[in-house]
Design brief:
Helix content: 10-25%
Structural class: alpha+beta
Number of strands: 5
Strand content: 15-25%
Largest sheet: 3 strands, antiparallel
Distance between the termini: 35 Å
Low-confidence stretches: 1-6, 84-90
Strand order of the largest sheet: 1-4-5
Shape: globular
Bound molecules: iron/sulfur cluster
Length: 90
């Protein structure tokens, strides 16, 4: 499976973070992006940067998280890939 960096048209250096104040361990992200997320010892989702995953899978996980807990970041400045944008930037 190709990584996000290899996906045609995908932003460079894509990463995901999970806001553990919001995550409820519903595991929708594990179904939408197998290889990108796993549950930690508290049953909260954490991102696995080494994959395998695709940008489309990450975007699907973000868009389908019932708690809106997944934030995608890209590029050297780690700009957020949210729509609507930027809950976590000032
Ligand atoms: S889908 Fe959202 S709430 Fe559910 S485990 Fe993943 S990040 Fe947490």
């Amino acid at each position: 499976m190709r990584t996000a960096a290899q996906d045609a048209g995908a932003p460079d250096e894509v990463r995901a973070i999970v806001d553990h104040d919001l995550c409820a361990g519903v595991t929708q992200c594990l179904r939408m992006a197998p290889g990108a997320f796993q549950l930690d010892e508290d049953q909260l989702s954490v991102f696995a940067p080494s994959g395998p995953w695709t940008f489309e899978q990450l975007a699907a996980a973000r868009d389908n998280c019932p708690m809106a807990a997944i934030i995608l970041l890209a590029g050297p400045g780690r700009a957020t890939l949210q729509d609507p944008p930027l809950r976590y930037t000032e």
